[in-house]
Structures are given as structure tokens and as C-alpha cells.
Amino acid sequence: MRCDVKRARDNPFAVEHVLRLRYRFRDEDWPSFLNRLQSRNYRGAIVGPKGSGKTTLLEDLGEHLETLGLRVHRLFLNEQNRAYPAEFVRRAHGSLDERDVLLFDGCEQLSLPAWWRFRWETRRAGGLIITTHRPGRSPTLIECQTTRELFRDLVRSLHEPTTLASETLERLFEKHRGNLRDAIRELYDLAAVENSREANAITIDS
């Protein structure tokens, strides 16, 4: 007896597929973005709401900076991990120079005094690029925003040809207020339900 049931990884919206999506600029490209960044001495903030692509952009940026011969250091904080990166600061103390660029995802999890302390203790680094939900901690480098068109394009990249109705995508975009990460997570659940229905409809020969 054989039952050909799709596994979770076969879901077009599984994490391993979603992680292949890369950041898409609206009004510029990588050369112009890198030129702007260089003119700002590799310092600034990537600003935007949750699920707007900040982390993806920061990840992609790190790879580009490494191809330029810079030493990239990645730091990450979130609501579950707000601890001051004391171990990194301790290890980096005295060794940072103009070739080092710090990419700090979620720096706003630090209190303002802790943020200023971090900036002081890493001041010798050649660059410091952060992500935040709101502007203010560093001059804004780029504002990440989502659109319905972007959401549809990403869905098509994951699920082509897509059988999802435009009304479904519109509803999810509105429901999650433009948070594409959460909208795609719900698409995963919807696809899993559909796969389960298909599996239940299979005639099993014995």
C-alpha cells in the first residue's frame, strides 16, 4: 500500500523556499545603494515595520560588503533576546578598525543608554549599519516598505503558476497590515490544508 503525501518541505511556502527570496529595491539598485552607503562612511539605519524586508536587506548587504574586502560582523537582537552584546564588545575591543563594518539587526532592543554605550565602545569600526522599526538612532539610509504588488510578485516567485485568487492575497495583505513575513506564514498554513485535502482524496490501492 502506498500513499504519496506531500511533505512539509514540498509546501511552496516552506521556510527553506522563503529564505531564497532576496531583497528587491524599488527605486535603486545595488551599485547605487552601495555608493550611497560608502558616501555615508558605511553608517546608517535601515528603517521599516515588521516583515518589510529589513533583515533580508541587511543579510544581502553583508555579502556585498564582504566582496568589497570589508570584515563584516553580524549582531542580532529581538524581543526574546535583548541582552547587551557584551561578549562581542569584549572580543572586539582594541581590534576594530576602518575595515570592520558592524551589521546590527534589532538594535532598538537596547535601551538608549545601552545603545550609546555600544556606539562608544565600537567607535573604531569603519561602519555601523542597523535595522530599526522607527527612525532616530542613526541617520536613515533606506526605508523598507511593502506593497500589494511586491507581495504578489513574491508569491509568484514561490508558487508559479499560482492558483491563489487575487482576493486571497489582498485579504492577507490587509489582515497582516503589509507584514509579508506573517502573510507568507499564513499562506504556508493554507497550502498545508490544501495538500491535506489532496492526500485524503487519493485512492489507495492495496
Brief synopsis:
The protein is of the alpha/beta class.
Would you kindly provide a written description of the structure presented here, covering whatever features stand out?
By secondary structure, the protein is α/β, with parallel strands linked by helices. The protein has 2 domains: 9-20 and 146-198, no CATH class; 30-143, P-loop containing nucleotide triphosphate hydrolases (Rossmann fold, 3-Layer(aba) Sandwich), CATH 3.40.50. 42% of the residues lie in helices and 13% in strands. Strands 2-3-4-1-5 form a 5-stranded parallel sheet, with helices on one face. α5 links the parallel β3 and β4. α7 packs across α8. The longest helix is centred in the C-terminal third of the chain and has 21 residues, at 180-200. It is elongated, with a radius of gyration of 21 Å.
Features:
8 helices; Rossmann fold; elongated; alpha/beta; 2 domains; five-stranded parallel β-sheet; disordered N terminus; 206 residues
Helix fraction by DSSP (H/I, runs of at least 4): 40-55%
**Largest beta-sheet details:** 5 strands, parallel
Structural class: alpha/beta
Radius of gyration of CA atoms, rounded to a whole number: 21 Å
Query: What is the CATH class name of the largest domain?
Result: Alpha Beta
Count up the helices.
8
C-alpha end-to-end distance: 5 Å
How would you name the CATH homologous superfamily of the largest domain? P-loop containing nucleotide triphosphate hydrolases
Q: Would you tell me which CATH topology of the largest domain applies? A: Rossmann fold
User: Low-confidence stretches at least 5 residues in length (pLDDT < 50)?
Assistant: 1-5, 201-206
- Side-by-side strand order of the widest sheet: 2-3-4-1-5
CATH architecture name of the largest domain = 3-Layer(aba) Sandwich
Mean pLDDT: 90
Q: Roughly what fraction of the amino acids lie in strands?
A: 5-15%
Can you count the beta strands? 5
Shape: elongated
Domains counted in the coordinates: how many? 2
Helix-strand sequence: HHEHEHEHEEHHH
